[in-house]
Design brief:
alpha+beta, five-stranded mixed β-sheet, 10 helices
Length: 359
């Protein structure tokens, strides 16, 4: 899922810092949900903000922010086709953004508007692909917490008798040719599927056929788990039950997929490792996917030639960067890339941050 940094979003995060700053990010989608239901959710959000602002900012500025927030809510556009809404208010700034991304509700009262809050609020959709391989066919399913649907079904390509070169090949070798051609065809189908669905992939099959496939596939980075067994006669319900323990910890599934992608990019020399390399490539508009450990921050100063160097104090107002990580996030999103956060320690071998470059 991509969050593109529009000029409106850039305006928000470039706004003057002034306390209290309120951010409300939540689902909206008036075409799918009743207006009364959305209005009630917004009222609860504003009531929560008012309690926090009244407690921590019991002055004229706090009252001004609440007044401005209620005015914004009274003028919301319920005819939009967007999926979510982001409302930003401070004593000197107010903005409403209608977004195309699905989000989880998030309410923040702080001294500024943070780009991380928008990324953190992205709704993690529990969707995945399943490839079932047997000696007779392959099936690809699109799974989620709500649905499990077959999207592709293929049978092995029949090899012509002429391909056997007379009696030069015995039955076992001929069967091997059939298998190779079939698995090559399956891998080509995956080219199309994985290009359309950037999702984790589970591989189900016997050890023999799964092993053959793993030796030939170009899509190892997409495969997050293997389940060995014979599943040729398994129904959709049975497959769902088999997969349930493997998708129960979705955070682990997602992080394994991300690590696989980082490893593949590194093998292709398309990975910028560490904040200095990630900064350089992001500033050169080369960022496809930025992966960052949660809560990782890096204060720095501007150097020469799109470089930065660490600092602990604000020596120069014009070159000081409060958090270079936030700047990299903003630049990647601005250029159509995506950002994922992972747990602390997961990127120790990548110096806390890594950027997959555009191919």
């Amino acid at each position: 899922m991509q969050t593109v940094m529009s000029p409106e979003i850039r305006e928000v995060f470039g706004a003057v810092h002034y306390m209290p700053s309120v951010s409300i990010i939540m689902p909206f989608d008036p075409k799918m949900n009743p207006k009364a239901e959305i209005a009630h959710a917004l009222k609860l959000a504003v009531d929560k903000v008012q309690r926090e602002v009244s407690k921590n900012y019991p002055n004229e500025l706090g009252r001004l922010v609440i007044q401005k927030l209620r005015t914004l809510l009274s003028d919301l556009n319920f005819n939009t086709h967007k999926k979510s809404i982001a409302i930003y208010v401070s004593p000197v700034f107010e903005k409403v953004l209608y977004l195309d991304i699905a989000v989880e509700e998030k309410i923040i009262v702080d001294e500024s508007f943070e780009i991380r809050d928008l990324v953190y609020s992205k709704k993690q959709l529990h969707k995945y692909l399943v490839l079932v391989l047997t000696g007779k066919e392959s099936r690809i399913y699109l799974g989620s917490s709500e649905n499990f649907v077959k999207i592709v079904s293929d049978t092995p390509v029949i090899v012509n008798e002429d391909d056997r070169h007379g009696d030069q090949l015995d039955a076992a070798a001929h069967k091997e040719i059939l298998m190779d051609k079939f698995l090559h065809h399956v891998d080509q189908s995956l080219d199309i599927i994985l290009n359309a669905y950037h999702l984790p992939l589970f591989l189900l099959g016997t050890e023999r056929i799964a092993g053959h496939f793993m030796k030939r596939t170009k899509h190892k980075p997409a495969i997050v788990d293997y389940i060995h067994g014979s599943f040729g006669e398994s129904t959709i319900g049975q497959l769902q039950n088999i997969l349930q323990p493997h998708v129960a910890d979705w955070e682990q599934v997602k992080q394994k997929e991300i690590l696989n992608r980082l490893d593949a990019a590194q093998n292709k020399h398309m990975l910028a490792v560490g904040i200095h390399a990630a900064w350089r490539e992001a500033m050169n508009h080369k960022g496809s996917l930025l992966v960052v450990e949660k809560n990782y921050m890096y204060a720095s100063q501007h150097g020469s030639n799109d470089s930065i160097y660490p600092t602990v104090e604000k020596y120069n107002h014009f070159s000081y960067i409060k958090d270079a990580v936030d700047d990299v996030i903003e630049k990647v999103l601005e250029n159509g890339g995506d950002v994922e956060f992972v747990e602390k320690g997961l990127l120790d071998s990548y110096n806390k941050i890594a950027l997959i470059q555009r191919y």
